[in-house]
Amino acid sequence: MQVEVLNIQGAPTGRTVELPEEVFGVEPNDHVIYLAVKQYLAAQRQGTHKVKTRAEVKGSSKKLHKQKGTGGSRKGNIRNPLYKGGGTVFGPKPHKYDFKLNRKVKDLAKVSALTYKAKDNAIVVVEDITLETPKTKQVADIFKSLNIGGKKTLFVSTEQNSNVSLSVRNVPTVQAALLNDINTYDIMNAKVLLLTESAAKVFSEEEVAGEAAPAETTGA
């Protein structure tokens, strides 16, 4: 899949990058995307919810009155869950919501998400952006020139640039991420995937490296 590289003014540079079919042209698997997104959102939950049981609330442990002979119901102490201020029965306890996914499942989910972006023509490649000083307005103008202003965008680069990061984080519709850190949720949550030229070339370089790797041989 050939994608044209644009400059920061939104005009073609005359260069193209090859996005491999093995990453951007597979048969998408919706179920693994669901699992990857579910795992990501579950991992964001703190799981610190907690209520006090009758053993933890404040109050006397003395039995309120004798068991029989009062004409009333049987009662324990004031910490009984039936009383106001008593303990809670079967309330939530701190626990983790995260669950494990195999690496191959997560990789397939990410590749499926990238394929959907390619099918929707929602991938834009721009030349590497460098700024001398943090300037949000300058970055916002670049996004407008690329016709993605106002669209929820995932901006992916290969290296951390403090000036660009500080500028991008003030644009409410844009999320910046390093290529190694992108995940299925971020890809699916964005309307546009904006790749720097360096980030786009990494996919091709990895594909070429995989093809050039020598086959393993076994001794006789």
Feature tags:
220 residues; alpha/beta; Ribosomal Protein L4, Chain: A; 2 domains; six-stranded mixed sheet; 34% helix; elongated
| CATH architecture descriptor of the largest domain | 3-Layer(aba) Sandwich
Number of strand elements: 6
Q: End-to-end span in angstroms?
A: 42 Å
CATH homologous superfamily of the largest domain - what is it?
A: Ribosomal protein L4/L1
Helical run tally? 7
Q: Approximately how much helix is present in the residues?
A: 25-40%
- Kindly state the mean pLDDT as a whole number? 90
Radius of gyration in whole Å, from Cα? 28 Å
CATH topology of the largest domain: Ribosomal Protein L4, Chain: A
Shape: elongated
SS-derived structural category: alpha/beta
* Unreliable parts: none
Main beta sheet strand tally, sense and closure: 6 strands, mixed
Count of the separate structural domains? 2
The main sheet orders its strands as 2-1-3-6-4-5
CATH class of the largest domain: Alpha Beta
H/E series? EEHHHEHEHEHEH
Strand content: 5-15%
Write the layout of secondary structure elements.
Layout: E1 2-6, E2 12-18, H1 21-24, H2 30-44, H3 103-119, E3 123-126, H4 136-145, E4 153-157, H5 162-168, E5 174-178, H6 184-189, E6 192-196, H7 197-212
Parallel strand pairs: 1-3, 3-6, 4-5, 4-6
Antiparallel strand pairs: 1-2
